[in-house]
Amino acid sequence: MHEGELALETEVAAHLIARRFPELGGETLRPVPMTGTVNRIIRVGDGLVARFPLLGAAAHELVREAAALEEFAASSPFPAPRSYGTASASEEFDSAWAVQTWVEGDPADPVLSSTSETLAHDLVALIRALRAVDVRDRVFDGRGRGGDLGDHDEWVATCLRRSAHLFDAARAGRLWSVLRELPSASAPVMSHRDLTPFNLLVAEHEGDTRLAGVLDGGDFGPADPALDLVAAWHLFDAPGRHLLREGLAVDDLEWRRGAGWALQQALGLGWYYAESNPRMSALGISTVGRVLADEGLSRLID
Predict the structure, then answer these.
(1) Residue 216, domain member (yes or no)
(2) Quick one: signal sequence residues (predicted)?
């Protein structure tokens, strides 16, 4: 999916796992079909999963991620992976890698879940619980999304140039030019920072789609409170978004910043993953469509 990504055969992964974690040497390994974009995922037995970074990672980065995973799992009202251990880079695989606990569930579907009221209420409960965690003296670390929307102008411009065949890029550009001028958050809250459908596991319960687990909590940390609102735009049509907004008591400014973060993320998915990850590409196109069709946002540019 990415230029220069690391290759890893399952047989080599089995050797690495058995060497670093001898107690797992007899476990069955099952590669997990790719829905994410930054790790090769291999299930280890029934209860664990190995994550091998496609673009490489330093050992200290995965140690930091493991600590964040623990804090996230302790804070989330829904099941989340916990760290089992990390491993250093080697001649066979030039990156540190990690083993985590496995969480059952299916990735949320932005079409099938679009009208689920129960899922919207579950996400309200999740985001409320994360926001209730004490930020202490921590601040946004400057990595990725969650600071100032305007910091992403160059990337957005690149995405718009490459996306004219996928959606109304001119209209998306006009909306971005409005949203990126919004005042930044006055104070951060603790945030998952990547609440995309592929990180949200669901299960059917008595005919309703319920949140069954939350993946990739390794970036749990302070960020713009609007950042986790991307889930509303990735997953729901207007009624579901309304439920989530009401449940979190989000004002106009925060809601619009959330739309800005969703647009920034989605603009990069459609064209970038068009060939290598069609499901991720489709998510980006779907989310951009929801943002551009929203009546409240349309009034800002029409």
Answers:
(1) yes
(2) none
Within-domain flag for 197 = yes
Q: Which amino acid is at 28?
A: T
By CB atoms closer than 10 A (0-12, 13-18, 19+), residue 117 is middle
Tokens in use for 37? 């974009």
Same domain, 266 and 135: yes
Q: What is the pLDDT of residues 217-272, one digit of tens each?
A: 999 999 999 999 999 999 999 999 999 999 999 999 999 999 999 999 999 999 99
Specify whether 71 is located in the same domain as 200: no
* 3-state class (DSSP) for residue 52: strand
pLDDT above 90 covers a percentage of the chain that reads 91
Contact 90, 15 (CB under 8 A): no
- Name the nearest CA neighbour of 111 among 300, 286, 296: 286
Question: What sign does the dihedral 208-226-272-38 (CA atoms) show?
Answer: negative
Domain boundary, last residue among 101, 129, 151: 101
**Helices 169-179 & 252-272, crossing angle to 10 degrees?**
140
Which burial class, exposed, middle or buried, applies to 183 when counting CB atoms under 10 A from its CB (0-12, 13-18, 19+)? exposed
Quote the pTM value. Answer: 0.94
> pLDDT tens-digit profile of 130-173?
999 999 999 999 999 999 999 999 999 999 999 999 999 999 99
CATH number of the domain where residue 85 is located: 3.30.200.20
Same domain as 237, residue 112? yes
**Residue 229 and residue 124: Cα distance in Å, rounded?**
10
279 CB neighbour count, 10 Å cutoff: 16
